[in-house]
Design brief:
The structure holds two protein chains of two kinds. Chain A has 14 helices and two strands. By secondary structure, chain A is mainly alpha-helical. In chain A, strand 1 and strand 2 form a beta hairpin. In chain A, helix 4 runs antiparallel to helix 5, helix 5 packs antiparallel against helix 11 and helix 7 packs across helix 11. Chain B is an alpha/beta fold. Chain B is built from eleven helices and 14 strands. Chain B starts with a helix and ends in a 10-residue tail after the last strand. The chains are: A mainly alpha, B alpha/beta. Chains A and B meet through helix 2, helix 13 and helix 14 of A and helix 4 of B.
Chain lengths: ~325, ~325
């Protein structure tokens, strides 16, 4: 049996198609396979951060330090490259180091019971400070070509390698959340922490693991970053977290935890990416782009209310109709 | 059939007129030039765009100005990527991060697009030319001239830079110190302190207050940050040091007009961003039309902006410093 696509995901697909049509109307340069495939690069690094954040949000927590973790990862990659380490050694080590930063967040939140917004606000500054101390002010640009491959090359001369990596990560995390015990427990904790604990789930351990995963993914996003921009500096991805949170919220994840799917986040990224691409090609003024994206965030936040309202209105009209026909 | 005849006829005429020569075939106008600032909405960059638009209109080019509304390098790269998809003849930008924009700019160069930086340079191998507002020495001299207007008899001065590694700020300070040591005109000054305020308004204010407390005889605070210089003026007014201490350096006229008018400050400096944008666009056009060779020493005429010389590494120094006083500040609208 084919599972029906949930209502919100379906809405996102429709909105993305509409945004594509609108973009084609706005700019004659939009409708080209080359162009569209290449434009996906723009949301890969925030996309990977969003997938990691989604896992944390499903648990009912938040992590706004992820962009700083990315900067730390990018600078760490530059150190390995300068040292001459091959990429297949650097990648796991950087990913592990970023996972360690995530673990620190997780321990502070889960073991010490501190509010996650406060903790990650603090580590957002701390991790970035670490990146600044570790890196140089002018930035590192002498990366070995093997370090740049993922973020800069295209497969079959068309699809960015980074975009394929993003899809693989999205699929893997989706399976993790839907088909494994870990994933089920994440949803259970997000819905009701106390009941999960009473049912024998080690809530703290799951939370630490989720933060570690988000950190590790930020490390992978760092690999994409250095390839795309050919540069590592302490201020990398500064300001990216707003877009990441927008994608997660617009993707239909309940910010209080327990509800929503990775698929929704991916579709939200497609929608945001299409709109940014279209408006960019039409050279729409910066403030208007910000207003449109901010508007989408509000739609994402109000979504449960809007949807309930619509359903209620529909039911009300339907029942009256039924009464009338009787 | 008819089309063929027309084509042959056209080719025949072209040959007859000697248009077969490739130089003569080069386009002379109608280029598509796209400009992106560090961020849009800032009066300084809007003025640069106005100048660019004016040059393009004069030369018969198409001019597009777009970008994100805050300085974010990944958004700037996205803008440049979107520019590339629109197949322009040239791109002009003020780079936020000189290295991070390099990959996309190199891609543009590979496609035969002319790349011009203005205000803030990108990596040298990722652009054709850099239209620099002022040389470091010029900037240093201009700020000291302003300081002399503030305190004609000299005295103690202090510098406020963004950070110890901000390349332009540190170079300005280095040259100011050299002038104070070697040039009799500026030997009346004595440098007592250098502080860092990270281009941050609140930090600049605190730094200025601290400087005045630490050095009771301080006469002038000089900063090449357009954020720190006005914040210094605010600190002087708020702490009751008007007339005793002065703030100067680079600032937008709109930000310091009030202080000049009420007499609490006497002089600030900058350059005309509108003419800077005009020059950048004019030079870009000349390069596109095959009329500008970017070899050091080449001189060229840039319309109403005057004559310029190409320096090393494709650098063109605009070099017209402006000094704002209460008498002329009303003339500027950025």
């Amino acid at each position: 049996m084919i599972r029906k696509l949930p209502q919100w995901e379906l809405t996102l697909v429709v909105l993305t198609l509409a945004a594509g049509a609108w973009s084609a109307y706005l700019s004659p340069y939009y409708l080209s396979l080359d162009q569209i495939a290449y434009s996906t690069r723009q949301f890969v690094f925030p996309g990977i951060l969003a997938i990691g954040l989604a896992v944390v949000v499903i648990l009912g927590e938040i992590d706004i330090s992820l962009a700083s973790t990315l900067a730390f990862g990018a600078v760490l990659f530059s150190k390995f490259s300068a040292f001459g380490a091959p990429i297949w050694i650097a990648t796991p080590l950087v990913t592990a180091a970023c996972a360690a930063l995530g673990t620190l967040n997780g321990v502070l939140v889960a073991r010490f019971g501190l509010p996650s917004l406060a903790v990650t606000l603090g580590t957002m500054g701390a991790f970035r400070g670490l990146a600044f101390i570790l890196g140089s002010e002018t930035g590192y640009t002498g990366f070995d070509d093997s370090y740049l491959y993922v973020g800069s090359e295209q497969a079959f001369g068309l699809v960015p390698v980074s975009f394929i990596l993003f899809l693989v990560i999205a699929l893997a995390v989706s399976v993790l959340m839907r088909r494994t015990v870990f994933g089920r427990r994440c949803y259970a904790i997000g819905l009701n922490k106390e009941a999960s604990w009473a049912a024998g789930i080690d809530v703290a351990r799951i939370k630490v693991m989720a933060y570690a995963l988000a950190g590790a993914l930020a490390g992978v996003a760092a690999l994409v970053w250095i390839g795309q921009y050919g540069s590592a500096r302490g201020d990398n991805a500064d300001g990216a977290i707003l877009f990441v949170v927008t994608a997660v919220v617009l993707g239909g994840l309940d910010i209080n935890g327990g509800r929503g799917a990775i698929l929704g986040v991916v579709l939200a990224l497609f929608l945001l990416g299409t709109m940014r691409n279209g408006m960019g090609l039409a050279n729409v003024a910066g403030p208007i782009q910000t207003i449109v994206l901010g508007g989408l965030l509000i739609v994402g936040v109000l979504r449960p209310i809007l949807f309930q309202g619509a359903v209620r209105g529909y039911r009300f009209a339907f029942s009256r109709q039924a009464v009338a026909s009787n | 059939m008819k089309l063929h005849t027309t084509l042959f006829a056209g080719a025949g005429i072209a040959l007859a007129l000697g248009l077969g020569d490739s130089a003569a075939l080069a386009k002379d106008s109608g280029f598509k030039i796209m400009m992106t600032p560090k961020w849009t909405g800032f009066p300084y960059f809007e003025a640069a765009a106005k100048g660019g638009r004016e040059a393009a209109a004069e030369l018969g080019d198409q001019f597009v100005y777009a970008g994100a509304d805050h300085a974010d390098v990944s958004l700037q790269v996205e803008t440049l990527q979107n520019f590339l998809a629109q197949k322009p003849d040239a791109i002009e930008l003020a780079a936020i991060d000189l290295n991070a924009v390099a990959p996309v700019l190199k891609q543009a160069l590979k496609r035969g697009i002319t790349v011009t930086t203005f205000d803030a340079d990108a990596a040298q191998d990722a652009r054709d030319m850099f239209v620099n507002q002022l040389s470091y020495k010029q900037a240093a001299k201009t700020m000291l001239d302003c300081a002399l207007l503030d305190s004609p008899r000299g005295g103690e001065i202090a510098f406020v830079a963004a950070s110890p590694t901000a390349p332009n700020h540190t170079a300005h300070i280095k040259y100011m110190k050299e002038y104070i040591k070697d040039d009799p005109k500026y030997q009346v000054f004595k440098v007592v302190d250098t502080q860092y305020a990270n281009d941050d308004d609140a930090k600049s204010y605190d730094v200025a207050i601290n400087l005045m407390q630490a050095h009771p005889d301080l006469k002038v605070i000089i900063s090449s940050s357009a954020v720190s210089a006005p914040a210094g003026a605010r600190a002087i007014s708020a702490s009751g040091h008007v007339g005793k201490v002065f703030s100067t350096g680079f600032a937008l006229p709109s930000a310091i007009k009030g202080y000049l008018k009420d007499g609490s400050e006497k002089c600030f400096a900058l350059w005309d961003p509108e003419e800077l944008g005009y020059l950048a666009t004019y030079a870009t056009h000349l390069k596109l039309a095959g009329k500008l060779d970017l070899k050091p020493g080449t001189t060229f005429e840039a319309g109403k902006a005057g004559e310029y010389t190409v320096g090393d590494g494709g650098e063109i120094v605009y070099g017209k410093a402006l000094m704002f006083t209460k008498d002329n500040v009303d003339k500027f609208n950025f």
